[in-house]
Amino acid sequence: MLKLYEQTIRSRLMLGTARYPSPAVLAEAVRAARAEVVTVSLRRESAGERAGQAFWSLVRELGVRVLPNTAGCHAVKEAVTTAHMAREVFGTTWIKLEVIGEDDTLQPDVFGLVDAARILCAEGFEVFPYTTEDLVVAERLLAAGCRVLMPWGAPIGCGRGLNNLFGLTALRAHFADVPLIIDAGLGVPSHAARALELGFDAVLVNTAVAQARDPVQMAAAFAQAVEAGLAARQAGPIEPRDLATPSTPLIGTAFRG
């Protein structure tokens, strides 16, 4: 079980809700993933009143917890205002905080992110910041009041997986007691399994599922990968070695002279 703020969830796989071929496919993918948390962009779902109401009805029918996000925000004030609107629309203090600083990579503006997190935490929000693997930024976010961190694996939607294994491993080791959720850049289920093997608590996936040839099948594959990665971590993997170690001992075995 994973505790995020004061809520306990079973699934280690969260799903984004953008870019699916249809609402019906989205619903089937969420079920196949056995996801308990989905992210929602307030801006996208509020673009049309009827569309937004239909989407919100679909989410309620699925029985999942909504994690609204501030996707597309490039400034602190913009992100804070969007968070306020999301709280009113979705009736939750959870917010996935995004403050984008660079358009080509969608890399977070970590300075604005910390400022926005400090404001929202002080106002009672439970903030899930989309950040980098930088240790200093992580310290600042925790000091601002965040109790969960969402470091990127790679730029949003690129499918490259875990780009900086050294940095991510250091982040996991340095903040051993903080829930860490890999967000962005995962492309195939093996990326998710690797994240859980490294000790990360969960993953958030959107594009890799929504844009797959069969989103429902891909969602199921990610669910299996997350379970496998967690089980492998709990089982205690062997340490990598530079030299071979025979799996069959030579002492006591028969041989011909």
3D structure, described in words:
This protein is α/β, with parallel strands linked by helices and 257 residues long. Helices cover 43% and strands 17% of the residues. It is built from 10 helices and 12 strands. The protein has a 5-stranded parallel beta sheet. A 3-stranded parallel beta sheet has the order 6-9-10. A two-stranded antiparallel ribbon has the order 1-2. Helix 6 links the parallel strand 9 and strand 10. Helix 1 (23-33) packs parallel to helix 3, helix 4 (76-90) packs across helix 5 (110-122) and helix 8 (189-197) packs parallel to helix 10. The radius of gyration is 20 Å and the shape is globular. The relative contact order is 0.14.
> Share of helix among residues?
40-55%
How many strands, which pairing sense, and closed or not: the largest β-sheet?
A: 5 strands, parallel
How far apart, in Å, are the first and last alpha carbons? 56 Å
The SSE order reads EEEHEHHEHEEEHEHEHEHEHH
Question: Strands of the largest sheet, in order across it?
Answer: 5-4-3-12-11
Number of helices: 10
Mean pLDDT: 91
Q: Which percent range describes the beta-strand content? A: 15-25%
Q: What shape does the CA trace take?
A: globular
Q: Would you count the extended β strands for me?
A: 12
Alpha carbon gyration radius: 20 Å
Unreliable sequence segments: none
The chain-level structural class is alpha/beta
